[in-house]
Amino acid sequence: MITAAQLRAARALAGLDQRRLAELSGLSLPTIQRMETSEDVVRGNVDSLTKLMAAFDSIGVEFLREGIIYSEGGRGVRFKKSVAAPRKLAQSAESADDAPSSRVGG
Q1: Domain coordinates of the chain in residue numbers?
Q2: pLDDT per position as a tens digit, 85-97
Q3: Count of C-beta atoms within a 10 Å radius of residue 3
Q4: Can you give 41-100 as a three-state secondary structure string?
Q5: Candidate ranges 11-15, 61-65, 71-75; pick with highest mean pLDDT
Q6: N or C: less crowded end of the chain, CB within 10 Å?
Q7: CATH class of domain segment(s) 4-98
Q8: Do 59 and 86 contact (CB within 8 A), yes or no?
């Protein structure tokens, strides 16, 4: 389970507005808004929560759960350690697809 505060923090960490998160997750903007205004734990059907978590996972954001031992602190969000350089997500998917390749030689 994630909290509404974690959801807002994860979106801010990734540099996303609510509309972009809705696009990435395949959810509607009102659904994202409703989730973010939940009292504590985000409420939603299983399919919506799964889509939301998959979107964050695909961009390298992980949710820290309460009760799990971390080096310090409790609930929160962070970029996964395996993500060398978090992708800039504020731009649209079309812009990212149209960008020239940065690979050299082949």
Answers
A1: 4-98
A2: 445 444 444 444 4
A3: 18
A4: ECCCCHHHHHHHHHHHHHCCEEEECCCCCCCCCCCEEEECCCCCCCCCCCCCHHHHHHCC
A5: 11-15
A6: C
A7: mainly alpha
A8: yes
* Long-range contact pairs involving 60-63 (C-beta distance under 8 Å, separation at least 24): 60/86, 60/87, 61/10, 61/13, 61/14, 63/2, 63/6, 63/10
Helix (H, G, I), strand (E, B) or coil at 13: helix
Q: What is the pLDDT of residues 30-61, one digit of tens each?
A: 999 999 999 889 988 999 999 999 999 998 89
Question: What pTM, to 2 d.p., does this model score?
Answer: 0.68
Determine whether 59 is exposed, middle or buried from the number of CB atoms within 10 Å of its CB (0-12, 13-18, 19+): buried
Place of tokens 């205004």: 37
